[in-house]
C-alpha cells in the first residue's frame, strides 16, 4: 500500500511539475483551509478553525480578497459561536509550481459578548497540483484586540486547498 501511495504522489509531482501556476492578472481564487491555532497570551490553547477565502488578482502575482474565519468553539473566549471577516492581500513569488507568498489582513471579530479587531501577517507556500488547484499552507501571527481588553497574540498554522480560475476573457 505504501508503495502505491509513493508511486501515485510521484506521478502527480511529475505531471504537475511542468504546469504553469495561475496567479496572473484577472484570475480568481476560492478555497478553504483548516487553522491550527496556538494561543500564548494568557494560556496555551490549541484549537481548530475553518477559514474560507475568495480573492481577485488585479495584477500579476498580487491578490486582494475577503476571508471569513469560523470558530465553532473558541478556547480562550469560551464562546459557542465566534467569527471574523475582513480583507486580505497576498503577493506571490514564483518558483515553478511552488509559489511563496506573503499575506496580510485586518478583520473585524464578532463574538457572543464582545467584538474586536485582528491584524494578521505571515508567509505561505502554495504547491500547484495543476493549473487550477493548489495545496497551501501559511504560518501567521495575529494581533487580536477585544474592545475593553488587553491585546492577545496568536500563532496559526493553516493547511488548505484553493482553486484558481478565470471567469473573464484575457
Element layout with pairings:
Layout: H1 2-17, E1 28-39, E2 45-59, E3 62-71, E4 82-95, E5 98-111, E6 115-128, E7 133-146, E8 152-165
Antiparallel strand pairs: 1-2, 1-8, 2-3, 3-4, 4-5, 5-6, 6-7, 7-8
What does this structure look like?
With 170 residues, this protein is mainly beta. It is built from one helix and eight strands; from the N terminus they run αββββββββ. The protein has one helix at 2-17, and strands at 28-39, 45-59, 62-71, 82-95, 98-111, 115-128, 133-146, 152-165. The protein has an eight-stranded antiparallel barrel. β1 (28-39) and β2 (45-59) form a beta hairpin. It is globular. It starts with a helix and ends in a 5-residue tail after the last strand.
Which descriptors would you attach to this protein?
8 strands; eight-stranded antiparallel barrel; single chain; Porin; 63% strand; 170 residues; mainly beta; globular
Short précis:
The protein is mostly beta strands and about 170 residues long. The chain has one helix and eight strands; from the N terminus they run H-E-E-E-E-E-E-E-E.
Q: According to CATH, what is the class? A: Mainly Beta
Percent helix, as a range, is under 10%
Percentage of residues in strands: over 45%
Distance between the terminal alpha carbons, to the nearest Å?
44 Å
Number of domains: 1
**What does the overall shape look like?**
globular
Main pleated-sheet profile? 8 strands, antiparallel, barrel
- CATH architecture, by name, is Beta Barrel
Strand order of the largest sheet: 1-2-3-4-5-6-7-8
The helix/strand order is HEEEEEEEE
Amino acid at each position: 500500500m505504501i508503495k502505491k501511495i509513493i508511486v501515485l504522489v510521484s506521478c502527480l509531482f511529475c505531471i504537475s511539475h511542468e504546469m504553469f501556476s495561475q496567479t496572473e492578472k484577472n484570475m480568481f481564487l476560492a478555497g478553504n483551509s483548516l487553522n491550527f491555532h496556538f494561543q500564548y497570551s494568557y494560556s496555551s490553547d490549541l484549537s481548530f478553525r475553518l477559514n474560507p477565502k475568495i480573492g481577485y488578482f488585479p495584477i500579476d502575482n498580487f491578490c486582494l480578497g475577503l476571508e471569513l474565519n469560523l470558530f465553532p468553539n473558541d478556547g480562550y473566549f469560551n464562546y459557542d459561536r465566534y467569527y471574523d471577516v475582513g480583507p486580505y492581500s497576498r503577493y506571490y513569488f514564483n518558483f515553478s509550481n511552488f509559489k511563496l507568498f506573503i499575506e496580510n489582513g485586518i478583520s473585524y471579530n464578532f463574538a457572543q459578548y464582545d467584538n474586536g479587531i485582528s491584524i494578521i501577517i505571515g508567509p505561505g507556500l502554495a504547491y500547484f497540483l495543476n493549473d487550477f488547484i493548489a495545496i497551501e499552507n501559511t504560518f501567521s501571527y495575529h494581533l487580536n484586540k477585544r474592545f475593553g481588553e488587553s491585546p492577545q497574540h496568536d500563532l496559526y498554522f493553516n493547511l488548505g486547498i484553493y482553486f484558481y480560475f478565470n471567469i473573464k476573457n484575457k
